[in-house]
Design goal:
This protein is of the alpha/beta class and 381 residues long. It has 3 domains: 3-89, Chorismate Mutase Domain, subunit A, CATH 1.20.59; 92-190 and 281-380, Periplasmic binding protein-like II (D-Maltodextrin-Binding Protein, domain 2, 3-Layer(aba) Sandwich); 193-272, D-Maltodextrin-Binding Protein, domain 2. The protein is built from 13 helices and 15 strands. The protein has helices spanning 3-38, 45-58, 64-86, 91-102, 122-130, 142-150, 170-178, 213-218, 220-225, 238-247, 261-264, 312-322, 355-364, and strands at residues 112-116, 135-139, 156-163, 167-168, 182-190, 193-198, 208-212, 231-235, 253-258, 267-272, 281-288, 299-305, 326-334, 342-349, 370-380. Strands 1, 2, 3, 4, 5, 11, 12, 13, 14 and 15 form a 10-stranded mixed sheet that branches. It has a 5-stranded mixed sheet with strand order 8-7-9-6-10. α1 (3-38) packs across α3. It is elongated, with a radius of gyration of 27 Å. It starts with a helix and ends with a strand.
Length: 381
């Protein structure tokens, strides 16, 4: 058999397939217009089932499974195309366009900011990296930071999302499901942990170490080196741990916190740079109540619930691939009070100005049971 001759046959067939596919998608556009006028949903499960049964009956037995896969993809592309045509007048598309036009061209230098913890927290460092003159207001929990933004008590909130060694901050992801907000910036902060105690305390005196659970995880090797008799206690914040040590009457307690806490709380550094990994960074997000999209936004965050059916997440991922959009992060979290239902969080490399971004926003809503656009923004390194 001549390979080149066979390839010529495939090329000829492909030429026909291209024309037929384009004709089919043109008819799909006609269907989309009919659905626009009649208010019908894009997805018609009964029609797709009947069509798939007809295709299977007409296929050779050895080709039947391949044909099902092929037409499942064709149905998916047809629905996506219809959604892109119907959703160009959607509320989301309108809101994004409005935000691009009305957001100031320069990120603010000063604002009222909500941070979790107390003075000396890493969130403070993230805040000061983003804002030149921030009015920082501290809250005891991540939930209260979200609440301060929703109520309008503060203009922006700073929240840790993930650490390069300890992973995601699950409490924040869980709260993201519950609250309404938008991401306007993200920033990476170098994490350098120190062991702090009251002045005059020696390392050999320490019987208990307190800090945030993420910091404890990031310094696990150092903590283990102190022996099994050292108690480890998690508190809500590294700076709060330092404050607690400074107020404690105990002489055998130490905090894992930032170097800046030493002078703030009158402590002594027993050992610096105790984190397991030298290249230790935490990514923080800056959130607001109002959708703001500043110039240069090249990263987009989404949350969605995919249908509880085979291949639903694949269909979403296939859209990213088809549009050439790089997926930076995928995180899943169980939805409270829902059995085996998950919310998926995505970070995408996608310029707000690209046609691929616009097309994706127009198509995704039709693929999901629930879809939440969190914002498009720039990350500060």
């Amino acid at each position: 058999m001549d390979l080149q001759e066979s390839r010529k046959k495939i090329d000829k067939i492909d030429d026909e397939l291209i024309k037929l596919f384009e004709e089919r998608m043109a008819v799909s556009a006609e269907v989309a217009e009919y659905k626009r006028q009649t208010g019908k949903a894009v997805l018609d499960p009964a029609r797709e089932r009947a069509k798939m049964a007809d295709i299977s009956s007409k296929s050779k037995e050895n080709m039947r499974s391949y044909m099902r896969v092929l037409y499942s993809l064709i149905f998916e592309l047809s629905r996506a195309y219809q959604c892109s045509l119907l959703n160009k007048d959607s509320e989301l598309y309108t809101n994004i366009s409005k935000a691009i036009d009305t957001t100031p061209k320069v990120f603010p230098k000063e604002a009222k900011i909500a941070c979790q913890g107390v003075e000396g927290a890493y969130s403070q460092a993230a805040c000061q990296k983003l804002f030149a003159f921030p009015d920082i207001n501290y809250y005891s929990s991540f939930r209260k930071v979200f609440a301060a933004i929703e109520s309008g008590e503060c203009d922006y909130g700073i929240l840790p999302l993930e650490n390069s060694t300890a992973g995601s901050v699950n409490k924040v992801y869980d709260l993201m499901i519950e609250h309404k907000f938008h991401i306007v910036r993200s920033v990476r902060v170098k994490i350098d942990h120190s062991l702090m105690a009251k002045k005059g305390t020696k390392l050999s005196d320490i019987k208990e170490i307190i800090s945030h659970e993420q910091a404890l995880n990031q310094c696990s090797a150092f903590i283990s080196s102190l022996g099994k008799n050292v108690k480890v206690t998690a508190v809500e914040n590294t700076a709060k741990a330092a404050e607690t040590v400074s107020k404690s009457e105990k002489g055998d307690i130490a905090a894992i916190c930032s170097k800046s806490c030493q002078d703030l709380y009158g402590l002594e550094c027993l050992q610096s740079s105790i984190q397991d990994a030298g290249n230790n960074h935490t990514r923080f997000i800056c959130i607001s109540k109002k959708l703001e999209i500043y110039p240069g936004a090249d990263r987009t965050s989404l949350m969605l619930v995919a249908p509880h059916s085979p291949g639903s997440l694949y269909r979403v991922l296939a859209r990213f691939y088809a549009l050439g959009i790089n997926l930076q992060k995928l995180e899943s979290r169980p939805i409270p009070n829902e059995d085996f239902e998950f919310m998926f969080y995505f970070d995408l490399d996608a310029s707000i100005y690209s046609p691929e971004f616009i097309q994706l926003m127009c198509e995704l809503d039709g693929l999901c049971d629930d879809f939440k656009y969190l914002g498009s923004y720039t990350e500060i390194i």
